[in-house]
Amino acid sequence: MTAEPVRILLADDEHLVRGALAALLGLEDDLVVVAQAATGGQALAMARALRPEVAIVDLQLPDIDGVAVAAALRTDLPDCRTMVVTSHGLPGHLKRALAAGVRGFLPKTVSAEVLATVVRIVHGGGRYVDPQLAAEAISAGDSPLTVREAEVLDLAAGGAPVEDIARLAALSPGTVRNYLSSAVGKLGAANRHDAVRIARGYGWI
After folding, report:
1. Number of structural domains, the chain?
2. Same domain, 104 and 191
3. What is the band of 130 on the pLDDT scale with cuts at 50, 70, 90?
């Protein structure tokens, strides 16, 4: 008796990329794309309705990122295994993804053959991380920032004044300045703008 094909959900806001992935996976006899989503919210709604076995999610979606989608799927649909594909595979992204239960993490530059193989590995209960991304994550080490420091630094990325950051983070302006000063010191940055650049370069914010 022939096994049923693996049911796949694709989530990517770039229609051309999503369509190309669907077409490539559709060439495989043992794989079938049952849903395509342009946002994280759509992906979650479709997953709950159609119950795919593997979700392939872009890291950067317009509403909620792929890691947040993976975390929600792990809670709502524990039998659905999630893979993240990305054009921006920074060390911090990989570590967040693995902590959220992502089973596969790979760049969009992989071949169709590799992508299909990873789908099968993940569906079978295995895990796959692109070797180059894994090596970079190991060499980068863990973020030196606390959760609050990273949050405040992220809010500062757009150049908002301390008073606005304080309101958004529900902190006093003095506390915000302390967090920013600490983040700048830990990252060896010249100022908060330089600290944002360094932290983003590692995917820590």
Report:
1. 2
2. no
3. confident
